[in-house]
């Protein structure tokens, strides 16, 4: 069990004309989930919005919609939270992947994660690549670990090689990208064999424990996948960028079918001209893990 203090600040600087109207949609408050308890969380927004609406979306994520009508040259959102993370033990055995696929396609809560989405749709090359990790009768957890290991070995982590709208097919064709691309590709591989997998956004511990290397994706928003392993094992999270099963070093923000469902901040503005974006993230333990 680890208790974390989380800070995420995003600042838009409008270097041209002032923005005179802005409406923004945020996924920036961490959600509850098995193994994660949010003890406190708040958003500080500047300028102070004229209106704010906090809701829960289709996937159970916390969303915030704000509107600002006064002229401004900076838009700042600062999230702070205290989160307790303590994942349960992994299962010693899981069902064969075919059993999971057969049950999931008729389950209303799972089927949408089996189907293609805009950024995580399998094509023929992805399907052929995925098939090697799913021989007949293989347990789902064993298949997940094999696929994640292959992706980690075959992809090159290269910031700037892709963008927020890059699809799984495009990232696979170039064999390079960042955590978003690794996650989209692994999700697409699962969907190629009709297995439910969801895209997860969140954060990595900023500084590793003594003696361990810093993980890729720390100091910023991160992404990984969650695969359904049956009613007893539930959802199992895997970080393909770092080739590891998610335990207590990750904090979940939101999940959906792909990045489009969980974009941290998007919106519409009137005015503004050019702009720059600054993002700063810290996820640090408050106490040593229990």
Automatic annotation (TrEMBL):
> Keywords assigned by UniProt?
Acyltransferase, Transferase
Q: Does the keyword Transferase apply?
A: yes
Entry EC no(s): 2.3.2.13
What are the transmembrane regions? Answer: none
Recorded hits in SUPFAM superfamilies, A to Z, give: Cysteine proteinases
Please list the GO terms describing molecular function. Answer: protein-glutamine gamma-glutamyltransferase activity
Fetch the Pfam families from UniProt: Bact_transglu_N (PF08379), Transglut_core (PF01841)
List each copy of the Transglutaminase-like domain by range. 171-242
tRNA processing: is it a keyword of this entry?
Answer: no
Name assigned to this protein? Protein-glutamine gamma-glutamyltransferase
**Species of the source:** Methylacidimicrobium tartarophylax
Lineage of source species: Bacteria, Pseudomonadati, Verrucomicrobiota, Methylacidimicrobium
């Amino acid at each position: 069990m680890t208790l974390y203090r989380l800070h995420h600040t995003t600042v838009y600087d409008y270097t041209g004309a002032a923005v005179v109207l802005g409406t923004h949609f945020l996924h920036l408050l961490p959600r509850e989930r098995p193994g994660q308890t949010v003890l406190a969380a708040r958003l500080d927004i500047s300028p102070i919005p004229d209106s704010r609406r906090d809701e829960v979306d289709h996937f159970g994520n916390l969303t915030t919609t704000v509107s600002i009508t006064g002229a401004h040259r900076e838009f700042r959102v600062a999230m702070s939270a205290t989160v307790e993370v303590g994942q349960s033990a992994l299962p010693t055995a899981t069902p064969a992947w075919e059993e999971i696929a057969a049950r999931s396609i008729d389950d209303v809560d799972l089927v949408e994660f089996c189907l293609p989405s805009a950024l995580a749709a399998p094509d023929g090359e992805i399907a052929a690549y995925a098939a090697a990790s799913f021989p007949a009768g293989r347990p789902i957890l064993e298949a997940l670990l094999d696929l994640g290991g292959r992706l980690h070995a075959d992809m090159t982590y290269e910031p700037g090689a892709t963008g927020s709208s890059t699809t799984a097919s495009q990232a696979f064709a170039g064999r390079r990208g960042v955590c978003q691309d690794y996650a989209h590709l692994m999700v697409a591989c699962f969907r190629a064999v009709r297995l439910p997998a969801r895209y997860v956004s969140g954060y990595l511990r900023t500084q590793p424990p003594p003696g361990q290397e810093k993980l890729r994706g720390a100091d910023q928003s991160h992404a990984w996948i969650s695969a359904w392993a049956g009613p007893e094992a539930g959802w199992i999270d895997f970080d393909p960028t770092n080739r590891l099963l998610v335990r207590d070093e990750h904090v979940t923000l939101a999940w959906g079918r792909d990045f489009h469902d969980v974009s941290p901040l998007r919106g519409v503005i009137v005015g503004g001209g050019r702009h720059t974006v600054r993002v700063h993230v810290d996820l640090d333990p408050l106490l040593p893990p229990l």
